[in-house]
Amino acid sequence: MGERKGQNLYYPPDYDPKVGGLNKFQGTHALRERARKLHMGILIIRFEMPYNIWCDGCKNHIGMGVRYNAEKKKIGMYYSTPVYQFRMKCHLCDNHFEIKTDPGNLDYVIVSGARRQENRWDPTENGQIVPETKETQKRLFDDAMFKLEHKTGDVDLSKLDKPRLGKLVGRNETVWKDDYEANCSLRRDFRKRRKELEESAITDSLLLNRSSLDINLLPESEEDKNLASLLALRPSRSIEESHKNVRIKILNSPALPSSSGLITSFGGLKKEESLSKSSPLTRNILGITIKRNKDSTECSTVKKSECKNENKSTEKCPTINGDSTDVLKKNEKISLVGDYGSSGESSEG
C-alpha cells in the first residue's frame, strides 16, 4: 500500500505545480521503503522460491513457494533478455543466499548460500508430452534435413496413436452427445447410490447401538457372509446338561481327604453306589481265596468223569466249575484278603 499513499486529494498550501508531482515535491518515492537502495540499482521485491532448497547456514529445508523480501538487481544480459539476481535472508537463521535467472534454460540457478533439492524425474516415463529443448528447436530452425527427419518421426508416431485417439473421441461423442440425457443419467445414479448409503447407515447405527460399539463398519460382501455362517457359535451341550455334569462331579469327589483309603465321605458313598450299579462284584474284585479241607483235596485228584458219576446230586464240585456262582460245601473255609477285611479272619460259607 506504500505506492498509494501519494494518491490522496490533500495538497499542502505551499505546493507548487511547477515542481512536478506531489512525491517529487515532498522528496519521496512512490515505492517508499522498497526504493531505499534504488540509487545502487537495487529494488526490493517480493520473491517466491521456485523450488525446494537446503539452507547452507542452518541446514534446514525450505519449500517451494516460500516468499521473501529480496534485493533485485540486474547483473547481465542474455542476448536481449536481462539477467537478474536476487539476494534474500533465510527466515530460520542469519544466512543469506543468492539466486539468479537463467533465460537460456528457462530456470533459476543458485549462486551461493543454498543448494537445490534434487527430486526431478523423466516426464517421458509417465507418458507426458515433453516440450522440445532449446537445442532441438535450434536444429529444427537451422538444419533442414533434421527438420524433415523430425517431421517424419512425428507422422509415424501420430499413426500409432490414431486408433487410441479415435476410440477416445468416439466414446466422448457417445457419452456426451446429448448433454441433458447424460446429466439425467448421472443424477439418477447418484440418487440411487445416496438411498443405498442412507439405508446402510441406518442399519449400521442400529447394529452398533445393540452391540455398544463405536467403530466404522465396512460394507458386506459374499465372502464375509460365507465366513460368518461357518463361524456360527453354537454350544456343544445345553445349560441343563452342563449343570448336571457339575453336580455329578461334585457328588463323586470326596469331601474330606482320607489317608487309610477307607470310604468315609458322602461323595465316596455315592461313587460306591454308582460302581455297584454299573458292574457286578466277583471274587477276583473282592480278593476272595478258597481254602479246602482234605476231602476237597482228595476230590481234586479224581478224574473229571468219575467225579461226575459219583456226584449226581444238585450240588456241584468246586474243582470242576471255578465260577463265583458255584455252591460251596459247608466244610470249606473262606478267607477274605483285601482292603475290606484282615487276612487272618475266616468264615464258614
Please summarize what this structure is.
The chain contains ten helices and eleven strands. With 349 residues, it is an alpha+beta fold.
Structure commentary:
- The chain is an alpha+beta fold.
- 38% of the residues lie in helices and 17% in strands.
- It has helices at residues 22-26, 134-142, 144-175, 179-211, 222-230, 239-252, 266-278, 283-286, 294-301, 304-310; strands at residues 43-48, 53-55, 61-62, 67-78, 81-89, 96-102, 107-112, 114-116, 288-291, 333-336, 346-348.
- The strands form three sheets. A five-stranded antiparallel sheet has the order 1-4-5-6-7, with no helix packed on it.
- Helix 2 (134-142) crosses helix 3 (144-175).
- The longest helix has 33 residues, at 179-211.
- Mean pLDDT is 75; it is low at 260-267 and 296-349.
